[in-house]
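User: Sequence recovery, please. Input:
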């Protein structure tokens, strides 16, 4: 998946002759803090709401400094997400040899992550804390598959301790057996989501414990 495949079609374009007020009204209408400045099909830069608010409403955008932030149409989606996060923008113009091809907004990125990577698919989510040297995707996959499930997607990040937090999206909500197997192999389950059978059991145990304390 590349940047060109994520273009959002309804992003309005700003022109150098537009006023600050006009640009702010557009941003408010489309709930965006950034919009592209384009002359015919030539990309001139990204205008931010923060910069606009520092100027008089009657000023024209030709007088406002824009940022030359853009990505190539062939950039991979992972790099698009990284560029958007690093620049702290909610809109990323896609430009090829100075020609404006369109823009990617956050909703397009979230839709892709939900649909293509499987984040929005039905199934439970497991979070394991694993020492980095001991992490084996093959072993975790084997444990999960031996319980009749599969990993739809996974991602990793690191704790300050150096341990890995590994998040698994599964294709089932029936994870009681998976949790037991992981614990049997000394895996630390930090948390889980969308597992009604396990959640109901834990809630039942909690209610029983509370009743015991009230005796």
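Assistant: Recovered sequence (215 residues):
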């Amino acid at each position: 998946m590349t940047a060109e495949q994520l273009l959002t079609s309804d992003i309005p374009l700003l022109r150098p002759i537009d006023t600050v007020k006009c640009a702010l009204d557009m941003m408010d209408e489309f709930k965006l803090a950034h919009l592209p400045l384009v002359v015919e099909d030539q990309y001139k830069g990204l205008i931010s709401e923060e910069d606009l608010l520092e100027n008089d409403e009657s000023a024209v955008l030709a007088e406002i400094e824009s940022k030359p932030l853009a990505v190539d149409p062939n950039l991979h989606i992972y790099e698009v997400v990284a560029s958007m996060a690093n620049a702290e923008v909610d809109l990323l113009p896609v430009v090829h040899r100075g020609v404006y091809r369109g823009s990617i907004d956050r909703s397009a990125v979230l839709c892709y992550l939900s649909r293509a990577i499987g984040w929005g698919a039905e199934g439970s989510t497991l979070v394991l804390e694993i020492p980095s040297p001991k992490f084996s995707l093959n072993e975790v996959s084997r444990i999960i598959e031996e319980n009749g499930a599969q990993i739809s997607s996974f991602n990793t990040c690191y704790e300050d301790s150096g341990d890995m937090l590994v998040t698994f999206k599964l294709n089932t909500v029936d994870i009681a057996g998976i949790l037991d197997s992981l614990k049997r192999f000394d895996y630390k389950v930090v948390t889980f989501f969308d597992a009604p059978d396990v959640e109901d059991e834990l809630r039942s145990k909690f209610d029983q414990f509370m009743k015991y304390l009230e005796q």
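DSSP finds seven helices and eight strands in the chain.
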